[in-house]
């Protein structure tokens, strides 16, 4: 009887498995991934006989293809965008739009202008610059930049709170001293 505590043998991927149309799974290097049906199999299936059997049984019309066909499928699979890649690109677009929105709000605050100037002046100016000077469609950029009156006010308040918090942290963590002078007024009242 086999020892119950014995470890299972974990097979490693071999480059020769590419001729059967298999690569290591994108999620785990120890699992085979069929390039044709795009399925991941257990580690126990990582035997040449099982990989070949899968290919001959389920992909008869592609079983006699050479290794170059599998390499082309592998390259195509490597170039496919994942869900993570799509969300990362969208998050990057939102990130630059948010950064631009904060910078414009900062400039509005520095200039001491009304917060509504973002919608009434800045947005049309961005549109004009992009369409006339850069000859590009300004719509995706303008959708990413939020400059409504309330948004500008909120961004200025957030930056104000953040600046105040940073200054307080610096003062808490920095040693400094205060010098006080005491003097008296003409009616013998002391004044610090």
TrEMBL record:
This is SCAN domain-containing protein 3-like. It comes from Octopus vulgaris.
């Amino acid at each position: 009887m086999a020892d119950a505590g014995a470890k299972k043998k974990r097979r490693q991927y071999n480059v020769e498995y590419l001729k059967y149309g298999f690569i290591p799974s994108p999620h785990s290097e120890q699992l085979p991934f069929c390039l044709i049906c795009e399925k991941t199999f257990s580690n126990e299936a990582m035997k040449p006989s099982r990989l070949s059997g899968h290919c001959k049984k389920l992909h008869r019309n592609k079983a006699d293809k050479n290794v170059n066909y599998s390499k082309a499928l592998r390259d195509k699979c490597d170039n496919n965008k994942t869900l993570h890649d799509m969300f990362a690109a969208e998050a990057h677009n939102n990130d630059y739009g948010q950064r631009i929105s904060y910078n414009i709000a900062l400039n509005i605050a520095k200039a001491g202008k009304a917060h509504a100037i973002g919608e009434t002046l800045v947005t049309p100016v961005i549109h004009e610059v992009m369409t006339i000077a850069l000859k590009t469609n300004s719509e995706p950029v303008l959708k990413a930049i939020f400059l409504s009156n309330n948004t500008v006010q909120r961004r200025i308040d957030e930056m104000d709170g953040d600046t105040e918090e940073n200054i307080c942290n610096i003062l808490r963590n920095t040693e400094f001293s205060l010098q006080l002078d005491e003097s008296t007024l003409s009616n013998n009242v002391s004044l610090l």
